[in-house]
Design goal:
CATH topology of the largest domain: Rossmann fold
Shape: globular
Radius of gyration: 18 Å
Structural class: alpha/beta
Largest sheet: 6 strands, mixed
Distance between the termini: 30 Å
CATH class of the largest domain: Alpha Beta
Amino acid sequence: MKLLLENWRKFLNEEYEPITVLRIFDFDETIAHTRSETRVEEPDGNKVVLSDQKEFEAYMQQAAAKENIEAFDPVGVLIEKGYKIDLSDFSIVKDPEEITIITDILRQFPEDSKTYVMTARRGNSLGPILDYLELINVDTHQVRPIATQGESKGLVIANMIRQKIMPDGRSNIHKVEYFEDSQKNVDDVIEKICKDKTLQEIKPDDFQMIVYKVDSIEGGHKLRKISCN
């Protein structure tokens, strides 16, 4: 949480730039496929190994439903209930496989835009993520990493829009492009950005939210475009 707040302060304290477009990329299964195992010991002693992010997300949703947990990120509450959850693999980038349909876009830095890698991992993963981006020739000087600690990415993006208010009372952010593989996060972002009536009041008239859902297909990946205002 401390590193999330530090990154957030950097965003708020940036000198004014003519930024009108936010380009936001998830990391796991969006920029790269990784082999990040999560080892769980349940309160009854049963042990589970989750081999990647998709298995992790599915298990956490099932465990949350079983324990009647409604939090967006149930990890902390599950730990309080006696689950032992080893997330150490998520502090490194393990056996990454580049998803080029995304990284080819990531390497482009259009004028009037700001590029973020927004990961649900914890803050100690940001250094290894930046190291990996450098390894695949992404200019990390033009990328701002943010670790959401598993919290709602939709709320984080909404706050980014709210913090760029111009003298006319409208946000300076006219367009958000969001690249994400998780349907849960896609639904959350659409809910928080496109359906929040309070946010509508500060959006520019030409505001666009474009989600690029990363779907796995035989032999690779494809992007599914979802637009809303």
